[in-house]
Amino acid sequence: MNIDELKNTWNEDDSFEETPEISIEHKNKINLPLEKMRKNMRMELWSTVAIFIFSFALIALCEAPFKFKFYVAILIASMVFVTFFFFSKFFTLYKEMSNPVLNTYDGLNELLHQFNLNKQYYLSFYVAFAPFLVCELVIVLEFIPRPVPLTEIQIATTLISALVIGLFTLSVVGTWWFKRFYGRHIDQVEALILQLKK
Predict the structure, then answer these.
(1) DSSP 3-state assignment of 19?
(2) Which residues are listed as membrane-spanning (predicted)?
(3) Tell me, what DSSP letter sits at residue 135?
(4) What is the DSSP string of 157-196?
């Protein structure tokens, strides 16, 4: 086989063709839920930043012993660090949603995979606040003055029950928040991809 025959064979082989692009109509249908998700992500980022700024301002302005303010400030700074880690993962997804590769069916399938991965990150984000909840409870129990000090049993009962209730609340709120702001849009994208498959 000479070089010309090899070129012709290469050009006739369609196995290397790209995945067919998605029609403009389907792109528009898919872009609507994606843009809503991007908007919710921006809102969540800026509201989280505002909450942390408010928390640091509140600590700076409150009348409390130095140790109490210092411990709470360290705790909030640690929460900022954990939040930054998870938000860096969400930002990767945020950029991915405007990727031109989404013009192909394979690109959309990859995006669905990213959604499922980020759902796990999102729920992990809420669970990651369990140690902070414990620390907050310890600080409150140690620094809030009481006329009668708590017994060891009362301290243990308060810590354990508050932790169980707090973890349950975090998981319920995290699941609800994800479904409300992201889950329904992910379901729309998934339904549109299933339509494309037919």
Answers:
(1) coil
(2) 45-62, 68-87, 121-141, 153-178
(3) H
(4) HHHHHHHHHHHHHHHHHHHHHHIIIIIHHHHHHHHHHHHH
